[in-house]
Amino acid sequence: MAEYLPLIVAALIPLAVPVLALAAAGLDAALTARARGTSVAVGAARPLREITRLLRQQRRTVLGADRLLWRIGGVGLIVASFLAVIVVPFGDTVAADLPIGVVWFNTIDVALWALWWMLGWGANGAYALIGGYRFLAQALAYELPLMFALTAPAVAAGSLNVGEVADAQSGLWFVVSMPIAALVYLVSVAAFSAWGPFSPAAGRDLAGGVLGELSGIDRLLVKAGRWCLLVAGSAFAVPMFFGGGAGPLLPEPVWVVIKTVLVLLVLVFAGRAIPAVPPQRLAEIGWVVLVPLTLLQLLITSIVSATGTGGM
Amino acid sequence: MIASVLFWISALVAVVAGALVFKVDSMARATYALALSFIAVGVAVLTMRQDFVGIIVILMMVMEMAIMAVFMISYMGMNPALMPMDMTHAKRPAAAIATIVFVGLGAAVLLIPWPVIDPQPVEGLTEQLGEAMMGSKMLVMLTVSPVLFATIVASVVLASPRGRYDRYGDRLRGPAHDPEPGGLGR
Fold first, then answer.
1. Distance (Å) from the C-alpha of residue B89 to the closest C-alpha of chain A?
2. How many domains, chain B?
3. N or C: where does chain B have the smaller number of CB atoms within 10 Å of the terminal CB?
4. Is B152 part of a structural domain of the chain?
């Protein structure tokens, strides 16, 4: 039985991630409905109505679209979110216990650069293409801080294996001992999901940007993919910064899910509260503020680890 | 066995995707065909149990190609790269050079007396590879990397059409005059 557990977890990921994503989308729609003074229940069901609408909607064809790249970008987001979660340990069980899981997650996040841009390019429309470029401009601002933020827990744990990073937090969670890295990581999750302040790539000022020309099942996959990425980022934050499965009474896998939901809630509420930032302004914030801060965080973490109190 | 099959499949994908770079008619597809080729190379490296190196190859190359697509499309001179275009030029010399290089490298692969490897799994493979490749040349690398980095910074500074005097005026005072304000209001 025990040898099949990773397979069972791997099979559950493509089910559980979209369910959490749907819940998050429902919450977001319900909050929007409340802010507008319309029925909260009707608002919460909006994502479900949107799914049934898009499933029945026929694809619009776009003249001169680069279908191959467009479809890869469309399917890619949701696939990337599943691939990111396979390295997250649920207690002792990991779908794929890679020795370099942290780098794996980083690679998935870099693949998003290509996928978001392909979405913009494939549509053969000016607004969609500008949306794709907006995402790349934003990616250049958040990627280096994100890389350093991921390096700090790996340095403190002395391992690139996600499970070992989680185990290294038995004394103190990394969110406490390296708050800057944790904050930068969460900001970057919102950024690679094009969520909240980082949504201009799909902005209304661009008639939907990368979403603009999408219809039917393609649009559904991309919209679902965005929420799934937010879920995947929340799930990966748990072993990296929030002590993995550690917690009283309940079994470890349950704690991982509970913490994932809590991180997701923080991301949803924070993303709604912060206004969109133009991508061209993000580079200065990323490189003048966040890169030095994360490097400082890395320096402190390295010194603490090297002087023997490492593991913390 | 599975590793060998995977290696040959990824080697084939790498070569075919590399050839596709010159067959497709769009800058975007050419760039991402090259990205696919590099991903296949990364997978081939993974089959040699070089987890870190293989994944890093994929990470760096996908990132680089995402940026390269932007440059390829914006700098494709007279022929706007938003339209279908031929990916080849100077065809005859290119074909000759490609053939010579391929034959040369292929011959080198077959003729070099490679060291016989111990088939037992080794601990710390990445570290050993790093030691073997870089160990005796660390001083050179330590000297070259700051020089390379300084060159990049210097060329960006020289290429930038707007220096600090354009931004702040002759006395380097006051708020910056930028066409697009940065995020910090400096």
1. 23
2. 2
3. N
4. yes
